[in-house]
Structures are given as structure tokens and as C-alpha cells.
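To: structure subgroup
Subject: Chain for Friday's discussion

All,

I'm putting the inputs and outputs inline so they're searchable in the archive.
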Amino acid sequence: MKSKKTLSFLITFGIIFIILYIIFSAKPLGLEYQFNPDWKINISQDVTASQSDIAQILKNDEKKLYFKLGRNIGYFSEDGQITLNKSFPSKVAISEHFYTLYNADGTNFTVYDNNGAKLCTINDYGYPMFDEDRIFLFLPGGASFSKYNTDGNLSWTVENTIPLTAFSSNEYYTAAGYADGSIKVFDNSTGKAEISFAPGGSDYPIILGLDISSDCQYVASVSGHEKQRFVLARKDENQPKIIFHAFLDSNLSRRTFVKFSKNGKQVFYNYENFVGIYDLEKKENYTIPVDTKILNIEESENLFFLLGKNENKAEYTVYVIERTNTLEGSFNFKADSAFIKAADNYLFVGKDNTISRISLKRE
């Protein structure tokens, strides 16, 4: 009799325990990012929309996004309307504001705005590069470069005899890295060198990648061959002060990716088989394994998107990184050419002759 009562008690106790455990241990599931495809468009035909058509296409403050896929460049709206699409036979430079088509000899090129209207003509010899609304010309020899205004007039020229190996600019400053391991930062309005230093620390000094923070207080670089390293320097009365450096398990012999986040709180850098992230607020360095060469970074409100390319085959990978410096996931696709753009809560992915929009939600 006692054994039956004991068994009954244990069963009842077990049931009550399970119920209480479920009640008190139950927690709401964490929010997860949902990627939902919206549309896909084809860019196989040339398009030049009129000003009135563009005004109808773009809604409120909606900006035009640019693309370069294969032998086509152009602009499109967030809703998937192509405002300009042109094929090019030889060379091209494009940004959010400007584009130009030019020949391999690099002479006499015309700059157009993102509506397709002629902006100016630059009659100097070299190879143009546009960074947002800034116009640069890399001069023959690979050691000097010039900055131009939107009228096509020369603003200033930086002359050097050491090959230019890395380049970056923002609204106020332009940074140049050279084959001798030196970095110079120039004022965009005057072309005057504000900072000049060499990170050093390697047997063969060379700057492979660099960037300037949005507040112009920090310069980050990957440099050197044999004892390659990442260096973060802070501007201190026009003299750089190295606040962090790390030797890298890497021996790249090519240009590599270095980029600050828009708010300047993180800096991303690519080296052999890894993406490094230095968090300036936490003063911590993070590493994420990758098996591609990083080409570009885009940001949404909560996420970073890095586009990488496998150099041995026609395959790209998009890495999704949260602002907590953790890898949320990745996806890959095969293509001969590709790009990514982020705007609002959308990710745009271009590959070969198509552009797709993906909505980003956290549910």
C-alpha cells in the first residue's frame, strides 16, 4: 500500500515540477533578422530618363543608387526604376554624384552628373576616380594625383616620386599611402599635408589599405610585408599617436580593404582569411574568419554587409555582421560581376545583368 502511495506521490510531484519548470523557465524567443525578397529588375537595355521622368520616379528624399555590372553602369531608385543605364566599351568611373566614360589612354574625359547631364570636361592626362562628390585624377607614373572642382578646374596637385599604393577620402580630408610605408593626410580645400607619418614595424614597409574616420580624428591602415600589421592612429595636434596595433597572421602582397563605419565607432580591415574589427568605444579587437577578398561594406540601421569575392572562381559572398561585432550569417552566389548597396531597411544585390531588393526586418 505504501509503495502505491509513494509512486502516486512521485508521479504527482513530477507532473507539478514539469508544469512549474515550463512556466518559470519559459522565455520569449529572441528576435531574428528576416530577409524577404521584394523584386528583381534586368539592366540589359540602355536607358536615359528625362528630368520630368526622374522627378516622378524618385519619391520625396529618395536618393539614386549607382551600379556597375559587367559593361554597364547607371543609377536606379529604391523602388527599382532605372533612371540611367549605359554600356561602356573601355574604362569608367562612377559615384553617387558623377560618372564618366573614357578611353584607355586616359585623356580628355567628360564628367556627367547622375541625371546624365554634362557637368564639365577635364583636359588633363590621367585616370579619374570619383568619391561621392569629389573628383580626383591619378596622374601617369602612379605617384601623383590631383583634385578638381565640379567646373573641371584644378584645385590642387600632390606630386611624389614614390608609387601610390592606397587611397581614401572623406568630406574634409584625403589620405594617401605609399610604397615606402608612409601615410600623408591632405586638407581637401588646400591640398596641404596636415599629417605625415609611417606606421613601420615590418621588414618591407608598404601601405596596403587605409581610411580616415568621419570626424577626421583617426587613421587606420594595414601595412607591411613580413610582419604585416594593422595600425590605428589618432590625430594629436597634427601629430599621429598610435593607439592600437596588431601583427597579423598574413602576408598579403596586394591592396586590401580598410574602412571606418559611418559613425566612426568601428573600423573594419581585411587580411588573409580574416576580417578584423576594432571597436573604438570598447577598445577591443575582433576577428571573423572569411575565405574571400573583401570588396565593399554597406550599412543599415543595425547591420553591416560585407561583399567578398572568391578570387579562384566566379563566386561572391555577402557577410552579415551585427553592430555587436558578431557574424549573423552569410550567403553566396555565382556571378562574373556583383555589387551591394544598403538604404533604409533594404539591401540591394546586383549580379551580372540583374538587381534585386531584399527587405530587412527583425521579428
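Points worth raising on Friday:
Helices lie at 2-25, 51-57.
Residues 218 and 234 are 4 Å apart (CA to CA).

D.
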